[in-house]
Amino acid sequence: MTIKRITFLQELLGLFGLQERVHLAWISSAEAQKFVEVVTAFTEKIKSLGPNPLPAYRDAPRAALAAAAH
Amino acid sequence: MECKLVPSVCSYCGTGCGVLFEVINNKIVGTLPMKTHPVNEGKLCIKGWNLHEHVNSILRLKQPLVKTFGRFMKTDWDEAIQLTADRFKEIIAKHGPDSIGVLVSAKITNEENYLAQKLARAVIGTNNVDHCARL
Amino acid sequence: MKEQIKSWLEQGTVDVFLGYREVDHHPIPWCFTQEAIEEVDDLVVSPARYSLEKIATHMAAEDPDIRIGMLARDCNNRALNVLYVWNQLRPEQVVTVEANCCPSPLKEHADCSYLEPGTVGAYKKAVGIDNHLRLEAVEAYGPEEGRNRWMYEFQKCIKCYGCRNICPVCFCRECSLDHDDLVGTGPLLPDIPIFHLVRAVHMAGRCIDCGLCEDACPMDIPLRLLYQKVNRIAMDLFDYRTGTSGDQPPFSILGDRVTLEPKPIQPVTGAEA
Ligand code: SF4
Ligand code: SF4
Ligand code: SF4
Q1: CA distances from C5 to A38, B2, C1, C52, C175 (A)
Q2: What's the pLDDT at C44?
Q3: Distance from Cα B41 to the centre of ligand 1, integer Å
Q4: Which of A41, A59, C3, C107 maximizes the CB count within 10 A of its CB?
């Protein structure tokens, strides 16, 4: 069920090009190494993607849309 | 079970969107936009969508109130109108007709607005008439 | 059809019959009863669609045992199925008279009526989303283009709640869209895209694609496409076919109220495997 829900979310966010910002991984409490790897990799990925672009549209919709037009 | 959809016009602003009141067992339970109405073509703003709420609201004023000794007291229309007229006369006699202003509303019809300005100009004698839509 | 309805009313098969009648040249939903049976002669199949099933739920809320007859197009039937699934009406208490679906293709991908095929202006086509597009075309926008186009549409929202109010399958007592901790009642612009996405998520497994919301949206936001998207996902992932049957389990993607077992759910007659 969880994997389906996450896939649902990714699909929906895909409309906005944000699907990459949701990640699901199974890590047992015994897999400390894997936890570190997954979290580090995901943090790196989010950093490289930069801040969430959506709030700009809400806070200053005209400016955000004008900026996007260029 | 009695259920009726009653066509009406939204009273909240001068646009005048067509609405249908959903009346079940003589109680208004909802408002719908009238799909075939030429003004709004099946759309409403948030005020129109909630028109039915003020009809049944417990806060709704159904009777005129007069402030006596700092408290609002219920009264009847005759008394309320008489009192208003007396006070108007008093004020006009003391300060002149231009001390009175009339503010009308988009919530009432054109005809009522016309009557209100007529009352202001011809009866009270002032040109101080304004309208809430003149923002 | 009128004879059938009259005999239902006379014999007490139904207590009321919901159809349309012209009042001052406006076809409006009308509740026909035995007491005023002659009105049935004025019954019309209106080109203007209202959610008769929503009116039916309001009547059933007053009198749970009421038996209701209803003029039903395909969309009404799909909505009834969802209402049965969610226990808002019981299938035993509703009988329908089938009415032809409104003339296609007023709207290119429509299987139902729009009063007039709305025209989409050049600017909206260039920066927003053409409501007449197919979902595939909208999905094909790149990440940035898709985002800009959707956000252009969402920022027009005047938060009239019309999309929720008119929807035949929106019946929740407490709605997340005016829950202060979730979306909040006050500010305009609403919290975009949360306002629209919250509703979209709730429409998964509920929306029967009647298009009434888009019809009622003063800002012409392509809501139907958005809800088609979530239902496409519900079908692909969960094999849930919204509105096709009145005896499938309710579908809810949220929280512990999920009652749905992962696939396969019960087969639906006529649906491809
Ligand atoms: S629904 Fe809104 S826009 Fe229409 S008349 Fe009422 S207040 Fe005005
Ligand atoms: S198309 Fe809109 S109004 Fe119709 S069921 Fe879906 S969300 Fe509700
Ligand atoms: S009907 Fe349109 S404008 Fe109104 S709240 Fe829904 S999306 Fe916003």
Answers
A1: 65, 18, 6, 16, 36
A2: 87
A3: 12
A4: C107
| Structural domains present in chain B | 3-56 (2.20.25.90), 61-95 (no CATH), 98-135 (no CATH)
Contact between C20 and C28 under an 8 Å Cβ cutoff? The reply is yes
- The ipTM value here is 0.87
Chain B residues touching residue C33 (CB < 8 angstroms): 1-2
Sketch the domain layout of chain C as residue ranges: 2-98, 121-247
- What's the helix, strand, coil split of chain C in %, to 5? 40, 10, 50
* Partners of C30 in the β-ladder: C19
Q: Determine the residue type at C268.
A: V
Residue-range domain boundaries for chain A: 2-69
The pTM for the full model equals 0.82
Q: Which residues of C touch A (CB under 8 A)?
A: 127, 138-139, 142-144, 146-148, 150-152, 154-155, 189, 191-193, 197, 200-201, 204, 226, 229-230, 233-234, 237-238, 253, 258, 262
